Amino acid sequence: MIQVRIPATSANIGSGFDSLGLALNLYNYIYMEQIDGIEIKSRDHTQVPTGENNLIYKTAKHLFEICGKPFTGLHIEQENNIPMTRGLGSSSACIVGGLFGANTLMGNPLSREELVNFAAVMEGHPDNSTPAILGGLVTAVIDDGKVYCVKQEITEKLRFFTFIPDFEMSTEMARAALPKVIDHRDGVFNLSRAALMSVSLYSGNFQNLKIAAQDKLHQPYRLGLIQDGDKVFDLAYELGAYAAYISGAGSTLMAIVDEAQADTFEKEARAALDRMGHASWELKKLMIDNLGTQVSV
Ligand code: HSE
Fold this sequence. Notes:
The protein has helices at residues 55-66, 90-105, 112-123, 126-134, 171-176, 184-203, 209-212, 219-222, 229-238, 262-275; strands at 2-11, 20-34, 37-42, 73-79, 137-143, 146-152, 158-164, 243-246, 253-258, 282-286, 294-296. By secondary structure, the protein is α+β, with helices and mostly antiparallel strands. Bound molecules: L-homoserine.
């Protein structure tokens, strides 16, 4: 069976709504081979759909059809380490895994660039799927089905602390909370900060990240849906984080921290979460993944 390793992602990075994202060193693994029929199972405790509605299967089958290749069925095994529906790119990982698995089984008829386009169209926005494929920090625009993007490798000296609540938040619900129309001033507020975020993360000007992560397009509407979200932001800054933001559509909250402060941050953040009554929230210390999706045959 071929193996596809897909990184978790953290989209938006505060101000870069639907346009900035980065890949993290937490991975889902997908094992795939062509068979007659359908056989899908999980290699861990997670429950996965085992029929035609499995997102990896659906995506892979779709790509076979688009490429005009005969499709008999698939045997898929999944190892899911990316928590589901928490704003860390679990559905992107399924789409990207399905695309790379199918492309490899067909003998690689499509380039990585074409897969970037397919993934973004299927996902609806490019800020999770593109970093999942390319790794690093990605600035991406989708226009007429084509992704225009730049991937930048960023330092491994940053730590990305994920505060993962014990409740799910679907992208659909998180998007429904947003206004249809925004004030011109809010547009300017965000676009200046998104540009600052992209270039500051890449160039190491981390003193800019707190301002760059500020946002008026989605976080003010979503933070209230995450219990104690505002308290976690305050906590992250009190403990010296460069930036705090809602990862993707939530519910995970992210803090970017210097590696020199990571041990203290971890100990104190854990203790504070427990004091807030959130012992069940998971605190993970992650790093950038600069490689993106990897396939082994
Ligand atoms: N940019 C998207 C959102 C990320 O915030 O809704 C979710 O995939």
